[in-house]
Amino acid sequence: MTETLVQNIIDVLGGSMGKEAIVFIISMIPILELRGALLVAGPLLGVPVATAIPLCIIGNIIPVPFILWLITPIFNWMKGTRKLKPMVDKLEAKAMSKSDKIEKYEFWGLVLFVGIPLPGTGAWTGALIASLLGVKFKKAFPAIILGILMATVIMWFISYVLLGGVNLLG
After folding, report:
1. Distance between CA 144 and CA 125 in Å, rounded?
2. pLDDT in tens, 13-45
3. CA separation (Å) from 33 to 24, 37, 80, 82, 165?
4. Of 138, 149, 98, the residue nearest 121 (C-alpha)
5. Which residue in 120, 118, 119, 99 sits closest to 110, CA to CA?
6. By residue range, what is the domain housing residue 57?
7. 169 in a domain, yes or no?
């Protein structure tokens, strides 16, 4: 499913945008985020690592403050509607099912949750869980940024060294 989503994005945007813009946009999309963007940037699109990394980091960070500040009021409003409440309840339940380490270790739990690239983790879900747990912005935002930087190092190695066949300085 993720591969199809990525290919559809590349197909739709490829004719009208450059490779760098595609990488930037992918890094902002939930589920794909920086992890998917770096995989696309290196092996698929051939975007140089020095260009891809800042694009992916910035693109992945941009949605985070909005999620931290606005998701709770938006969810509360949506819960007031009969049609949207089941969807919000499902999203909250799914996010909270992954919240145990964040709740227990807060800052460092959030860093690791965002930073270790496993399915269902990342900046979007980390910000959602932090918001639902009531973690203050001053604590959540830096933790998520550190997690994004950690994920960057891991995904750079996978994308550019293991899959891309690029030397460590390339």
Report:
1. 10
2. 776 788 999 999 999 999 899 998 998 898 788
3. 9, 6, 30, 31, 22
4. 98
5. 99
6. 2-61+154-162
7. no
Q: 135 CB contacts (<8 Å, ≥6 apart)?
A: 102, 106, 110
Of how many residues is the chain composed? 170
Please tell me whether residues 40 and 92 are part of one structural domain.
no
Give yes or no: residues 74 and 133 share one domain: yes
Q: Has residue 167 been placed in a domain?
A: no
The H-or-E segment that residue 162 falls in is none
Cα–Cα distance between 53 and 4 in angstroms, integer? 23
- Whole-model pTM: value is 0.87
Q: How many domains does the chain have?
A: 2
Report d(CA 85, CA 75) in Å as an integer: 8
Which are the contacts of 109, defined by CB distance < 8 A and separation ≥ 6? 101, 102, 103
User: What span, in angstroms and rounded, lies between the C-alpha atoms of 138 and 140?
Assistant: 6
